[in-house]
Amino acid sequence: MAGGMEPVPREEKPNPLQDANLCSRLFFWWLNPLFITGHKRKLEEDDMYKVMPEDSSEKLGEELQWYWDKEVQKAKKRGKTPHLTKAIILCYWKSYLVFGIFTMIEETLKIIQPIFLGKIINYFENYDASDEASYFQRRNSAYWYAGALSVCTLILAIMHHLYFYHVQRAGMKLRVAMCHMIYRKALRLSNVAMAKTTTGQIVNLLSNDVNKFDQVTIFLHFLWAGPLQAIAVTVLLWMEIGPSCLAGMAVLIILLPVQTCIGRLFSSLRSKTAALTDVRIRTMNEVISGMKIIKMYAWEKSFAELVNGLRRKEIAMVMKSSYLRGLNLASFFVASKITVFMTFMAYVLLGNVISASRVFVAVSLYGAVRLTVTLFFPSAVERVSESVISIRRIKNFLMLDEVSHFKPQLHGSNENIILDVQDLTCSWDKSSLLSAILGELPKDKGSINVTGRIAYVSQQPWVFSGTVRSNILFDKEYEKEKYENVLKVCALKKDLELLANGDLTVIGDRGATLSGGQKARVNLARAVYQDADIYLLDDPLSAVDAEVGRHLFEKCICQALRQKISVLVTHQLQYLRAANQILILKDGKMVGKGTYAEFQKSGIDFASLLKKDEEVVEQLSVPGTPNLKSARNRTFSESSVLSQDSSVHSQKDGAVEQPPGENALAAVPEESRHEGKISFKVYRKYFSAGANYFVIFILLLFNILAQVAYVLQDWWLSYWANHQEKLNLTTNGNNGTKVPDLDLNFYLGIYAGLTVATILFGIIRSLLVFQVLVNSGQNLHNKMFQSILKAPVLFFDRNPIGRILNRFSKDIGHLDDLLPLTFLDFVQTLLQICGVVAVAVAVIPWMLIPLIPLFILFIFLRRYFLDTSRDIKRLESTTRSPVFSHLSSSLQGLWTIRALKAEERFQKLFDAHQDLHSEAWFLFLTTSRWFAVRLDAICAIFVIVVAFGSLLLANTLNAGQVGLALSYAITLMGTFQWGVRQSAEVENLMISVERVMEYTELEKEAPWETNKHPPPEWPNQGMIAFENVNFTYSLDGPLVLRHLSAVIKPKEKVGIVGRTGAGKSSLIAALFRLAEPEGRIWIDMYLTSELGLHDLRKKISIIPQEPVLFTGTMRKNLDPFNEYTDEELWNALEEVQLKEVVEDLPNKMETQLAESGSNFSVGQRQLVCLARAVLKKNRILIIDEATANVDPRTDEFIQKTIRETFAHCTVLTIAHRLNTIIDSDRIMVRQLTASLLVFFYFLKNNVIDPS
Question: According to its UniProt record, what is one Pfam family this protein matches (predicted)?
Answer without folding.
Answer: ABC_tran
